[in-house]
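Hey, I'm writing a tutorial for new members on how sequence and structure tokens pair up, and I'd like a real worked example in the thread rather than a made-up one. If someone can provide the structure for the chain below, I'll link this post from the tutorial.
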Amino acid sequence: MFRHSLRCMARVTTQSVKPANMTPAERDAALREANEQMRQYVINRPSLDKVKPKRGIFDGPQGHQHFLQLAAVSTFLCAFLITPLLGKKIALDEDFRKKYVPSWYDYSLEKPDYAWTRQELHEQMIELQNELAERAIRGEFTPEKLEQMKAQRRQFMGKEKSEHGWDQLHPGLDDDDDLEDD
């Protein structure tokens, strides 16, 4: 808008005033008149609110796109915030799960019954320790018998190794580790 008015003023001044035929006094008068016109334009210029009013976020040629983008973002944000709460509800509330989750989509597993309780496992460990202590007292772990047990283990040393390591005594041992050093 500003450029357009400048071009119009330039045309008016160039058409009405020809510098080749002007005297210095006429030229100064024409310049003063042009400066006054420009000063009036700058001083009385309308505010940008009136020239280009602000529009709402959903107004204009892209308003529908903004609305769709806002709807998509709000949907994903709500889903992101609700998912943990809904998942916890499904995981912990069996009635809710039976009511709202279809049976073909329910992958929850029943909690297995443990083979031993903590107390039974503790009792088994105590029995094993007592049995080993009794065997040691009876003399089952004499050096000759230990050497015999090591000899039985040595018979497997020369055999061909399995590619999966199933023939090892302990899966965490390397080939160069020696069990007899302990």
